[in-house]
UniProtKB/TrEMBL annotation:
Residue ranges, annotated region (Disordered): 1-24
Recorded superkingdom: Bacteria
Every HTH hxlR-type domain range: 31-129
Protein's recorded name: HxlR family transcriptional regulator
Protein's organism: Streptomyces canus
Gene3D superfamilies named among the record's database cross-references: Winged helix-like DNA-binding domain superfamily/Winged helix DNA-binding domain
GO molecular function, one term: DNA binding
Keywords: DNA-binding, Transcription, Transcription regulation
Amino acid sequence: MEEGTSKSPSNCAGTDPGDADPFQWDTREDCQVRQILDRVADKWSLLVIALLENRRLRFTELRREIDGVSQRMLTVTLRSLERDGLVKRTVHPVVPPRVEYELTPLGGTLHATIRSLVTWTEAHQDEIAVAREAYDRRAAEAV
């Protein structure tokens, strides 16, 4: 480790506080901001958080609702979201055990942000489709 480098993974900004840009994050893999963004921007996490808005769902209900997710990937996603404090897992002591998932208050605050992203996507989907078609035409002509 270089001298003067912080050992704290949460300190991702440069060493000069005047250089810090609050709207920029470090691209290093050990940066906590990057790690959190990687988690919450993951497609499966976004879908789980969206589905858990104002309701509890069992694992099988989540899996049925999320097209294309494997059992293993859903398990990994739910564990990561639980570890980050975004999802609460409740095991009911019945036979067979019933497990439900719900957003924590922190996860609920993230849901509002995801809703904004979905709204933006819906508003601009036609523009994006046009841009994709133009790109694909240019790429096909270049071949």
